[in-house]
Each structure stands twice: as C-alpha cells, then as structure tokens.
Amino acid sequence: MVLFLDYAPSEETIQWANQVLEANKHLPTILVTHNLVKPVGNTGSAVIDGAECEYIWNNVIKNNNQIFLTINGHHTGSGYMVRKSASGNDVIMIVVDYQGYYRGGNGYMRLLEFDETENKIYNFTFSPYVINMPEKARSEQDIPELTSSDQKYAIDINFAERLNFAINLISSGIVGWSMILC
C-alpha cells in the first residue's frame, strides 16, 4: 500500500492515517509525504527535519510496523536514513527533490527497484527529458542519468524478514518490482 500524507498533516489527518494503517496491518506500506527528512549536503545521508517531522514519526510511522519505507521531497537534494520502529524493525526514509536543479529539475525522476532475490532497493535517477533531447541541444548541465553516490545506490533490506507479517507476498513468486518518483 502507498499512503500519502499532506504537508504538515493535521491531527485529523494523523488519525485518519492510523485508521487506514490499522485496517491494513497485513499490507507492506510506503508512506509518502511532503516533508519528513532532509539531505545532509551531498553525502547521501538524511536527518529528520525538526519537531513537526518528528511528530509524524512518533504518531504515525514508529508504531505502525507495516511502514517499511518513507519518501518525501521539500528539500533540494537526495539522501536517506534508517531508523528503528517501535517493533525494532528498520524504516528506510528517503528524501529526493530536484526542483532546485538546472531548469527546475530538468525532468529528473527517481526509480526505485525492489529486488527480492538480492534483498536490495536500487535507486536510480534519470531524466527522460534529457534522454530524448538531441545531443547537440544539450548543455553540460543536461545529464541523462545522475550517477553520484547520493543519486545511484542500493539499500539492503531483507524483504522476507522485514515483511514477515505480509500474507503470501514474498512466496507469491514475485522477485522484484519498481516504482518511479517524479
């Protein structure tokens, strides 16, 4: 399940999110919100972005074991951190935002590939816009794929262990899936 929260979610939204999560405890969940973690320079690392974001962690993410991944934007750049939930399981928290890049983001997208055989989440950043741009029309800032360590990396996750509460997900024969973030 992918659950979206608005920017600075209200208490009513927090309660709604918890109701949805409670009703769907058996579904692995990716939580997407506007602001949660921010990148630490170009290191590939991230940190919680203040008290408002800590509130989302404490009141939605931490106590809902099915949330294994969060994704947010708000801060230009990219990075991630891993934090332990109340159940002692890892929650991967990714920030990715290209609005401050050349041409307002230059069409960059983040592709997440979930490889259940290798137990990794691969992260790739590319621009279909630049890829389809004639070579002679590109400037030096028109880069088809960003390959620095904060833009292209793999995150280790033991899917069978982390998602052991999910009904028949891992044993279904699915060995990988992808999602694109714009």
Task: List strands and helices in order, with pairings.
Blueprint: E1 2-4, H1 11-23, E2 29-33, E3 37-39, E4 44-48, H2 51-61, E5 67-72, E6 77-84, E7 90-97, E8 109-115, E9 120-126, H3 128-131, E10 145-146, E11 153-156, H4 159-162, E12 176-181
Parallel strand pairs: 1-2, 2-5, 4-6, 5-7
Antiparallel strand pairs: 3-4, 6-7, 8-9, 8-12, 9-10, 9-11
Question: Would you give an account of this structure?
Answer:
- By secondary structure, this protein is an alpha/beta fold.
- The chain has one domain.
- 18% of the residues lie in helices and 35% in strands.
- The chain has a seven-stranded mixed β-sheet with strand order 1-2-5-7-6-4-3. Strands 8, 9, 10, 11 and 12 form a five-stranded antiparallel β-sheet that branches.
- A hairpin with a 4-residue loop joins β3 and β4.
- The radius of gyration is 17 Å and the shape is globular.
- It starts with a strand and ends with a strand.
Record keyword descriptors for this entry.
182 residues; alpha/beta; five-stranded antiparallel sheet; 18% helix
Q: What fraction of residues sit in β-strands?
A: 35-45%
Principal-axis shape equals globular
How are the strands of the biggest sheet laid out side by side? Answer: 1-2-5-7-6-4-3
State the low-pLDDT regions, or none: none
Instruction: Give the biggest sheet.
Output: 7 strands, mixed
Query: What value does the average pLDDT take?
Result: 90
What proportion of the residues is helical, as a percent range? Answer: 10-25%
| Class computed from helices, strands and strand pairing | alpha/beta
**Distance between the first and last residues' Cα:** 18 Å
The total tally of domains equals: 1
How many strands appear in the DSSP assignment? 12
What is the N-to-C succession of helices and strands?
A: EHEEEHEEEEEHEEHE
**How many whole angstroms does the radius of gyration measure?**
17 Å
Quaternary structure type: single chain
